[in-house]
Amino acid sequence: MTTETAPVTKTGNPRALARARKRQSLARFWHTYRAHRSGLWGLGLLILIALIAVFAPALVGSDAQSVTDAPGGPLEGPSGEFPLGTDQFGRSVLALLVYGARVSLTVGLLAAFLCVAIGTVIGIVAGHFRGWYSTVLMRITDWFLVMPTLVLAIALATVMDRSMWTVIIAIGVTTWPTTARLVRAQTLAVESRPYIERSRALGGGHSHIMTRHVLPNVMPLVLAQTTMIISSAILTEATLAFLGLSDPTITSWGGMLQDAREAGAVSAGDWWYLAPPGIAIAVVALAFTLCGRAIESVLNPKLGARS
């Protein structure tokens, strides 16, 4: 006589199920993202540049920024010892370029995070609360939107101390309006769905609806917007550094362009001092833009862009 045992079904832990769904979502996202060749190129470039920035001391030495211990002569052309020549103090331009990646990437990432955080909070609040709350927030947003971003950033950087954090704050507090308007529009679309009404009927408060229902639905849009803002923040940082509004004691790509201009590299034709930081800024901005376009296309399949 044989006894058959029915398979036992285990009900999973809700947290384990949530983690499993997140892993499945990430796997689907990566599978779709890989179909965008331009996005893969952009991601590869960003990973390479990030690794170079992280391991800068091991690659070019920890004293590469020292003015007193410069290894070469002023404004030497490219050679075997200095592949990209030297600056006016005799420092290797290649070493400065590697260290400049640290500051430019840090400013771009932190400024974009600050910008997206401000824009997301204001957009969700303005979309959730109607009446005069939304009106006041949108009028403030419109005021920032019509004002030239670079002019506001220059004004803030001028009245504050010259430091990296000043540049981050100046960029972050002047570039959030676009994110706020996009998030508000998405919030209005989300809150028109039936499950929001059911949540309200079951006693869900404002904070519950905004954090548990609205925020997860606007995060894909926020993620795509972040990658676009990072490239803009890096360009703005380079502009502020070129205008002499950043910390002169740190090395950034925009600061290298400012130093090259002050050293007369333009009139002297010292292209090796001018071209590398400009090309580096363009490459990083392009890489973030390619990643942003790929992410936006993955999260919004209606775009249908496969490149």
Describe this structure in words.
- The chain has 307 residues and is mainly α.
- It has 13 helices and no strands.
- The longest helix is centred in the C-terminal third of the chain and has 37 residues, at 206-242.
Produce a short descriptive summary.
The chain is mainly α and 307 residues long. It contains 13 helices and no strands.
Percent strand: under 5%
Broad shape: elongated
What's the Cα radius of gyration? 25 Å
Distance between the termini: 64 Å
Tally of DSSP β-strands: 0
**Can you count the helices?**
13
Structural class: mainly alpha
Q: What percent of the residues sit in helical stretches (DSSP H or I)? A: over 70%
State the low-pLDDT regions, or none: 1-11
Overall residue-averaged pLDDT value: 84
Task: Describe the protein's topology.
Elements: H1 14-33, H2 37-54, H3 56-60, H4 93-128, H5 132-146, H6 149-159, H7 164-172, H8 177-191, H9 194-201, H10 206-242, H11 253-262, H12 265-268, H13 271-299
Helix pairs in contact: 2-4, 2-13, 4-5, 4-7, 4-8, 4-10, 4-13, 5-8, 6-7, 7-10, 8-10, 10-11, 10-13, 11-13
Could you list some keywords that capture this structure?
disordered N terminus, mainly alpha, single chain
